[in-house]
């Protein structure tokens, strides 16, 4: 395991494992620091086909007693991915740090795309996760891989949601990182993402350049056009019940 507790602490600049989730979440909301951190992690490991934090999280951060967290082995993830087969869209509740999603993304990339011509806009994920400890690792894992995704931080059953995050690879470049954006809290997003009520304060955070993404993707894909339409609409709406 390359990402031991000591190595993760070193890369994130903390001295204790319990400080990692908050520190990583802070980094994820700062584009410059985030991309510097991504490059530091990629110096240690360049194989993005698996969840780097799987063993680390289970040993240091998992909440087995309170949330019964135990993550899926890659071998089981591979079987599940093969059962699902080819798909441009992907949904997973209780996504954890993203281990199954990463294996799905990787197998889809290898089996169904030419890696030299792959465009991230070919795929779209919707993931849900309740744990505040797991969330920053999930955001990290998808953003560093340039994946387009909606991440709903909240309870999949009660639909009580902290916030909804929107990861967008606005360069539509396989080698680029995804931007991190937070959807406004209003009736439009509540309907779109089936939110019963928001339980955290809204976060005003938009990084993506939607004009850049429109230029890179155009209307090549029906779902991508809808993606742009929704984002453009939501970006102009404040945190109001409108």
UniProtKB/TrEMBL annotation:
Protein's name according to its UniProt entry: SAM-dependent DNA methyltransferase
GO molecular function term, any single one: DNA binding
InterPro entries, per the entry: DNA_methylase_A-5, SAM-dependent_MTases_sf
GO annotation, biological process: methylation
Keyword vocabulary terms for this entry: Methyltransferase, Transferase
DNA methylase adenine-specific domain span: 54-163
